[in-house]
UniProtKB/TrEMBL annotation:
<feature type="transmembrane region" description="Helical">
    <location>
        <begin position="92"/>
        <end position="111"/>
    </location>
</feature>
<keyword id="KW-0812">Transmembrane</keyword>
<dbReference type="GO" id="GO:0033617">
    <property type="term" value="P:mitochondrial respiratory chain complex IV assembly"/>
</dbReference>
<dbReference type="GO" id="GO:0005743">
    <property type="term" value="C:mitochondrial inner membrane"/>
</dbReference>
<keyword id="KW-0175">Coiled coil</keyword>
<feature type="coiled-coil region">
    <location>
        <begin position="134"/>
        <end position="168"/>
    </location>
</feature>
<keyword id="KW-0472">Membrane</keyword>
<feature type="region of interest" description="Disordered">
    <location>
        <begin position="1"/>
        <end position="45"/>
    </location>
</feature>
<protein>
    <recommendedName>
        <fullName>Cytochrome c oxidase assembly protein COX20, mitochondrial</fullName>
    </recommendedName>
</protein>
<keyword id="KW-1133">Transmembrane helix</keyword>
<comment type="similarity">
    <text>Belongs to the COX20 family.</text>
</comment>
<dbReference type="Pfam" id="PF12597">
    <property type="entry name" value="Cox20"/>
</dbReference>
<feature type="compositionally biased region" description="Low complexity">
    <location>
        <begin position="31"/>
        <end position="42"/>
    </location>
</feature>
<keyword id="KW-0999">Mitochondrion inner membrane</keyword>
<keyword id="KW-0496">Mitochondrion</keyword>
<dbReference type="InterPro" id="IPR022533">
    <property type="entry name" value="Cox20"/>
</dbReference>
Length: 172
């Protein structure tokens, strides 16, 4: 890699003492949720939802995060409940109905739980990046204070040496 130096980040607001402030974390009640598109408070109909589904999203559903886990768990749960109903002497129609219902229910629950975990992980990564940036800014601030202190001490030393040199000249 030719250029490993990080690009400078935009300045952050400070708290009045010269220390940078971290931006606030997202509201915990919205963790893992996708914010709505468009205007706030706008009601969407089922037709609008269907119009937003593209063929690309249907053909690549297997590439979506959490899909595999939710789908396989749904199959296993549906098969298990349907099998148990068959063993308990329920009709084939009743067992299949339970199997399909449990497939749908467990798939949705696992999907939502996985999305929620991914959202929390994403928020944690954002927070970690904020803390790293905060520490970098603190380190830069301390280095700048140290440089200024050294420059001030050097100026004071030069002024003291100049004053001593002037005193010697008058005392001859």
């Amino acid at each position: 890699m030719a250029n490993d130096t990080p690009s400078p980040s935009p300045p952050r607001p400070s708290d009045g003492n010269g220390r940078p402030q971290l931006p606030p974390l997202p509201d915990p009640s919205t963790v893992g949720q996708v914010p709505p598109r468009g205007q706030q408070g706008q009601d969407y109909s089922v037709g609008d939802a269907i119009n937003h589904i593209s063929t690309d999203s249907v053909t690549k559903i297997h590439q979506m995060p959490c899909f595999r886990q939710a789908y396989l768990t749904g199959i296993a749960t549906g098969f298990g409940f349907g099998g148990v109903k068959m063993i308990l002497k329920a009709s084939v129609y009743n067992a299949c109905t339970w199997a399909v219902g449990m497939f749908c229910f467990s798939s949705i629950v696992i999907w939502e739980a996985c999305r929620w975990r991914r959202g929390r992980e994403h928020d944690g990564m954002i927070r970690a990046m904020q803390v790293i940036e905060y520490k970098r800014l603190e380190r830069e601030r301390r280095l700048e204070e140290k440089r200024l202190e050294q420059a001030r001490l050097k100026e004071e030393e030069e002024a003291r040496l100049k004053k001593e040199a002037e005193k010697r000249w008058w005392r001859w």
